[in-house]
Design brief:
- The chain has helices spanning 3-12, 19-32, 37-46, 49-61, 63-73, 79-92, 98-104, 110-122, 129-138, 142-155, 161-165, 173-185.
- The protein folds into 2 domains: 1-95, no CATH class; 124-190, Leucine-rich Repeat Variant, CATH 1.25.10.
- By secondary structure, the protein is mostly helical.
Length: 190
């Protein structure tokens, strides 16, 4: 069988539901190395079941080729693909991803927003501070509030302290516990 056909069939097999089978397929694809990259790019761009499962593999095998593809995939209407791409961009550590991650803070899905917050945290994206604060102050989602507060605590940007303090009496206990942890990270003790 032609090498290209073999790679393509393996990549399509990423849509399998069995974790063990997907891990075996992943190892086989990795063995093909850079030869698998064009096929991975194509499957990510298709936005199907296998596309979001191919994201990490693409990022691992060829980060330089993955970056523009994952930036575009982060904007996908396929939520699982967008989320996986945002998470991979955070792990890749390339600050070129910051603009699309900031853009995704405005997404209608709280899952996408939380993934973008966490990816920005991984990138140490202090220049996204204003966008994070804006979302923190406007969201009605307790999950997003505590995710942002936790990230701000880890980023240790002193500008965040007064804003974090505003959430000390938030109605959600998860938010309040993240406020306490974040303030401890800044040296405040309760």
């Amino acid at each position: 069988m032609d090498r290209s056909v073999t790679i393509q069939k393996l990549i399509e097999g990423l849509a399998e539901t069995s974790v063990a089978e997907r891990m075996k397929i992943r190892a086989q694809i990795v063995a093909f190395g850079k030869a698998a990259v064009p096929h991975l790019v194509a499957i990510v761009q298709k936005e199907g079941q296998a596309s979001y499962r191919a994201v990490d593999l693409l990022a691992d095998l060829a980060p330089e080729a993955a970056l523009p593809v994952l930036i575009e995939a982060a904007r996908s209407s396929h939520l699982r693909l967008a989320q996986a791409s945002i998470e991979a961009l955070g792990k890749m550590g390339d600050v070129q991803a910051v603009p699309v991650l900031v853009e995704q803070l405005k997404h209608s899905s709280s899952l996408i927003q939380m993934s973008a917050v966490q990816a920005l945290e991984l990138l140490g994206a202090h220049h996204a501070f204003e966008a994070l604060i804006q979302l923190l102050q406007t969201t009605s989602s307790a999950s997003i509030r505590y995710t942002i507060i936790e990230s701000l605590g880890k980023l240790r940007d002193e500008r965040a302290v007064p804003v974090i303090m505003m959430f000390q009496y938030d109605p959600d206990h998860h938010v309040r516990s993240r406020v306490a942890r974040a303030l401890e990270a800044f040296g405040f003790h309760s």
